[in-house]
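Suppose a colleague, Dr. K., hands you the sequence of a protein chain of 222 amino acids and asks what its three-dimensional shape might be. Before reaching for any lab equipment, you can write down a predicted structure in token form. Begin with the sequence itself:
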Amino acid sequence: EGLTFCDATSAAFAQDLPWDKLDVTTFSWQKAMGGEGGHGVLILSPRAVERLETFAPDRPLPKIFRMTKGGKLIEGIFLGETINTPSMLCIADAVDALDWMEGLGGLPATRARADANFAALQAWVDRTPWIENLAADPAVRSNTSVCLRIVDPQIAALDEAAQRDFVKKLTKLLETEGAALDIGGYRDAPPGLRLWCGSTVDTADVEALLPWLDWAFAAARA
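The predicted structure, expressed as tokens, is then:
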């Protein structure tokens, strides 16, 4: 039987994950918890552990990727044992983030915050003619990493390179004013914007950004 792998980097603490269907789940501190980059969490189901303990690799594995020894899971990996000592400041920051989330009310509260942030952003998208959600189907839209595309006829008529230049101009205006940072879309996505609406963001901050987006678009288009 196969195993189900889930990259939950943008979903952790913002959506209810179907743990009964997931075998290998990962997420980073950087996005879900507003923590430091380069750190993450690995969650294994009993089925995943069984596969690790019964699978014999057909090639040598670097030590950092070895999770079993003598046909048994190296449980110390999940008890704090490390090959190299990680930054204790990063760990303390992650613990502080978890304490903050627990103080809010746990997953129901953090999901509600992400939902409220997305709702505020999507309401603006719905009433703004020059932009749309990249995910046309509402059922598959993310409530955290929200990707938007520019549909203004004048901009959409440009070739892709010119559209990307327009997005760079728009985002540069926002960065110069200190209104937003690094909100350009993914390189492989259509030219557009990408905004983080996870639980570490206050809805008031999302709402404060919206007039700036309209201003930057008008200024870049002029």
